[in-house]
């Protein structure tokens, strides 16, 4: 392979069936994104089958998240060293192999090790699918290709818990992993047959072992901190303090090393492009706020509103499903409108929907719960697609794989931060609201009124306790939505710090910002 710039390849008309190749990339990306959340609701089934506690069972989720977070930023280096297509096919093969081993696991240790392997491979597939979509389509069709990729990012996390719950309840938890095999095998075969002409030039460079070790240290420490911090009372626990120090010190040393290393394992120099930097900043704010609702809404609906998993999943997934209906309009608008304006208006729209959700009460009916989710979805296409144009359209063509890897890395970290913040704020606000409500109760009067309604003293106490708990949870949920609204509105402003970008794949015109 030549070491020439990938830009020279341009759109690759030699792809035999561009639509089928795109479908393979999109489906494989959806499979990986789905696996991020598909095991969450299956933890009780897995823990019971393996004879471990629920706390131990959560390592099935944590191990995948940590491995994925470490792998994503390595995408650029691996694509440069081995080629984007070859790395993609290797990653797909590894993902299928580790999915098989996860499904066949008989011990916690085995499934955790296999989930680490699955996460390492899956973390590479997301940015590589995005990079290859940019390579196989001509510039005028790239918005449509990016829209398909974006839909998988939105829909996968929302559907994951429902798919996992359905499979675990009706089949066996083993199948949440084994179901990847036929999909992955088809993607590998079709990808090998169609994507080879889209291979990128390679270049042999030394392995940055120090950078890789530092990356593993600080990213692994940060992801572990985010995943287990809430159950360990955050920085009241020495373990969390140690993880925090490792993440902070490791990050600082990593930054210094990578910026001065001749052949860095992660190309941080792409952040010299202002469009990429501020596009990624807006993405972290907005996607984190979006994901916070994905975490909170189904848990609240099932635990406190009595909704079955199917209905809770429908409400949660309403955003992504509605986004599909406006996808073509968003792609068309991108051909003539300033992407920053589209992002700013769309994100402000999402903020308004968050404010609408902040008005929910424990008596809110199904359609009033579903409406903000569906209406929010109408603006999601106008947020995700232009944001990709702003960030990846600002870098040079040969930097696309590195930029896509870093963009997906920031999105992955924002998911972890948003989940940790949302659940912590929910817990703390619930406790504060509970104490406030209890302090204002008039128990004697309330007990007397319930006695008149034929409640026994025990029934009355349980009823009051349940009511106080439900309302304090409701107040906490509304407060989380107020926080997400603030994040959306901030993101709507941040995007204006980016220069107007050039076209995707156009060599970073307009957004260079050196």
Describe the structure.
- The chain is built from 20 helices and no strands.
- The longest helix is centred in the C-terminal third of the chain and has 41 residues, at 400-440.
- The radius of gyration is 24 Å and the shape is globular.
- It has helices at 18-37, 43-50, 54-57, 59-71, 75-82, 84-103, 108-136, 142-170, 175-178, 180-194, 209-228, 238-260, 274-304, 309-325, 327-333, 339-357, 366-392, 400-440, 443-452, 457-494.
- It is an all-alpha fold and 514 residues long.
- Mean pLDDT is 80; it is low at 1-13 and 505-514.
- Helix 6 (84-103) packs antiparallel against helix 10 and helix 8 (142-170) packs antiparallel against helix 14 (309-325).
List the helices and strands and how they pair.
Layout: H1 18-37, H2 43-50, H3 54-57, H4 59-71, H5 75-82, H6 84-103, H7 108-136, H8 142-170, H9 175-178, H10 180-194, H11 209-228, H12 238-260, H13 274-304, H14 309-325, H15 327-333, H16 339-357, H17 366-392, H18 400-440, H19 443-452, H20 457-494
Helix pairs in contact: 1-7, 1-8, 1-10, 4-7, 4-11, 4-18, 5-6, 5-18, 6-7, 6-10, 7-8, 7-18, 8-14, 8-17, 11-12, 13-14, 13-17, 13-18, 13-20, 14-17, 15-17, 16-17, 16-20, 18-20, 19-20
């Amino acid at each position: 392979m030549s070491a020439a710039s990938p830009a020279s390849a341009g759109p690759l008309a030699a792809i035999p069936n561009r639509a089928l190749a795109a479908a393979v990339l999109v489906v494989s990306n959806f499979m990986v994104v789905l696996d991020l959340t598909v095991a969450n609701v299956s933890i009780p089934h897995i823990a019971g089958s393996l004879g471990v506690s629920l706390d131990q069972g959560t390592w099935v989720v944590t191990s995948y998240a940590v491995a994925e977070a470490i792998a994503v930023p390595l995408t650029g280096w691996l694509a440069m060293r081995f080629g984007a297509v070859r790395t993609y096919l290797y990653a797909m093969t590894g993902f299928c192999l580790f999915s098989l081993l996860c499904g066949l696991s008989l011990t916690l240790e085995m499934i955790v090790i296999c989930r680490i392997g699955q996460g390492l491979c899956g973390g590479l597939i997301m940015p590589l699918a995005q990079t290859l979509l940019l390579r196989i389509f001509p510039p005028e069709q790239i918005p449509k290709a990016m829209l398909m990729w974006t839909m998988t990012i939105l829909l996968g996390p929302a559907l994951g818990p429902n798919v996992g719950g359905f499979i675990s309840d009706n089949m066996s938890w083993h199948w949440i992993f084994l179901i990847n095999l036929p999909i992955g095998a088809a993607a590998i075969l079709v990808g090998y047959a169609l994507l080879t002409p889209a291979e990128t030039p390679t270049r042999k460079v030394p392995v940055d072992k120090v950078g890789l070790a530092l990356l593993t240290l600080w990213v692994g420490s940060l992801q572990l901190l985010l995943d287990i911090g809430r159950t360990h009372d955050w920085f009241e626990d020495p373990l969390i303090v140690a993880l925090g120090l490792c993440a902070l010190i490791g990050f600082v040393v990593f930054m210094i090393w990578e910026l001065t290393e001749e052949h860095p394992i992660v190309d941080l120099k792409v952040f010299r492009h202002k469009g990429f930097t501020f596009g990624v900043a807006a993405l972290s704010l907005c996607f984190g706020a979006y994901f916070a609702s994905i975490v909170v809404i189904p848990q609240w609906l099932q635990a406190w509103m009595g909704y079955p998993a199917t209905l809770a999943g429908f409400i949660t997934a309403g955003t992504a499903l509605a986004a599909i209906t406006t996808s073509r309009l968003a792609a068309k608008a991108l051909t003539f409108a300033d992407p920053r304006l589209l992002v700013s208006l769309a994100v402000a729209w999402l903020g308004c929907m968050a404010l609408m959700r902040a008005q929910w009460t424990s008596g809110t009916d199904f359609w009033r719960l579903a409406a903000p989710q569906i209406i929010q979805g109408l603006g999601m296409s106008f947020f995700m697609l232009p944001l990709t144009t702003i960030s990846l359209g600002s870098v040079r063509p040969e930097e696309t794989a590195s930029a896509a890897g870093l963009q997906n890395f920031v999105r992955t970290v924002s998911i972890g931060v948003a989940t940790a913040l949302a659940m912590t704020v929910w817990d703390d606000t619930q406790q504060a609201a509970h104490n406030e409500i209890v302090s204002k109760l008039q128990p004697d009067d309330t007990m007397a009124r319930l006695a008149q309604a034929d409640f026994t003293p025990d029934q009355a106490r349980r009823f009051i306790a349940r009511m106080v708990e439900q309302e304090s949870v409701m107040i906490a949920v509304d407060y989380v939505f107020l926080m997400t609204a603030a994040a959306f509105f901030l993101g709507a402003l941040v995007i204006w710090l980016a220069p107007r970008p050039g076209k995707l794949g156009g060599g970073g015109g307009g957004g260079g910002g050196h």
